[in-house]
Amino acid sequence: MQVTDKAGGVLVGGLALFSLEDTLDCGQCFRFRRDGDGWRGVAGNRPLFLEETGEGVWLSCSRADFEEFWRGYFDLDRDYAALRDSYLAVPALRECAQYAPGIRILRQDAWEALASFILSQNNNVKRIQGIVDRLCRQFGAPCGDDPSAPDGLAYAFPAPEALAGRSEADLAPLRAGWRAGYLLDAAEKAASGEIDLQAIAAMPLPQARAQLQKIRGVGPKVAECVLLYGMARMEAFPLDVWMKRAMKELFPGCTPEDFGECAGIAQQYIFHYCRRHPDRVRK
Questions:
Q1: Rounded CA separation 127/176 (Å)
Q2: Considering the chain, what is the average pLDDT of its residues?
Q3: Residue 63 has pLDDT above 60, yes or no
Q4: 126-156 burial by CB neighbour count: b if 16+ within 10 A, else e?
């Protein structure tokens, strides 16, 4: 990987596998969207525009911001090419990995992942994006410019303290429905310290799962999403309806443990492939 300063941002070249579309439109985050030839979004309180060029991926951040945050956020130091190649011996997994080889697992903030995936339940991606955007605009602080937004501003993801003590009526403008109560319970537990997300991230996986499921509305699937996308636990393996069908039809007799210590990355290849090819697993 080569990182150079270019045109008010940084250019990242020399990466074998990194596709913005594969990474930002595969169901693992909800704050990035297409904007012209690139993608625009916010992680935490850091707005970013990025686009692919013939030389690599250009990011609208300083070199210091890239090294401090974005390099880790996009998991750029992991050798995804070697990992993807290790999957090629399994025909069904090879098909999934070759469909979108540029996927990288984002290393998101644990609270942001928890709140987002609580809101994602029984929902489609476009609607989740809308709810999360309204959440940030109503309860988050302005954190920079967003030329594509009606007010020209980007908003930070609200901390648990910004939601703790609110009522479901306060969250009505989000149009989150019954999920609002679950989000408020998570915010209360995180703000009070009853749930310590940093401590949970370091726990053995079974204990971490159990702690997350103490939050109202957090079941096994949401807990796995938080572990994988918000705590960088690459062995976590979210199982929603698509993944359960995929495991039954494409990987009969297999368990998440069969995919190794980076099972979550294999899961993301499988999930994205099945989401785009529903006839392969629609039984």
A1: 9
A2: 94
A3: yes
A4: eebbebbbbbbbebbebbeebeeeeeeebbb
Q: Is residue 221 annotated as part of the catalytic site, yes or no? A: yes
Q: Whole-angstrom Cα distance, residue 162 to residue 141?
A: 10
Please say whether the dihedral angle defined by the alpha carbons of residues 60, 62, 63 and 65, taken in this order, is positive or negative. Answer: negative
Q: What average pLDDT does the segment 92-102 reach?
A: 91
| Interacting residues of 37 by C-beta distance below 8 A, sequence separation 6+ | 51
Beta bridge partners of 36: none
Token pair in block for residue 267: 């899961």
pLDDT of residue 174: 96
CB atoms within 10 A of CB 21: 13
| Active-site position among 221, 244, 248, 283 | 221
pLDDT tens, position by position, 18-36: 999 999 998 999 999 999 9
Concatenated DSSP letters of the chain = -EEEEETTEEEEE--SS--HHHHHTSSS-SSEEEETTEEEEEETTEEEEEEEETTEEEESS-HHHIIIIIHHHTTTTS-HHHHHHHTTTSHHHHHHHHHSTT-------HHHHHHHHHHTTT--HHHHHHHHHHHHHHHSPEEEE-TTSTTSEEEPPPPHHHHTT--TTTTGGG--TTHHHHHHHHHHHHHHTSS-HHHHHTS-HHHHHHHHTTSTT--HHHHHHIIIIIH--TT-----HHHHHHHHHHSTT--GGGG-TTHHHHHHHHHHHHHH-GGGT--
pTM of the model: 0.94
Looking at residue 279, its pLDDT comes to: 82
- Rounded CA separation 110/231 (Å): 6
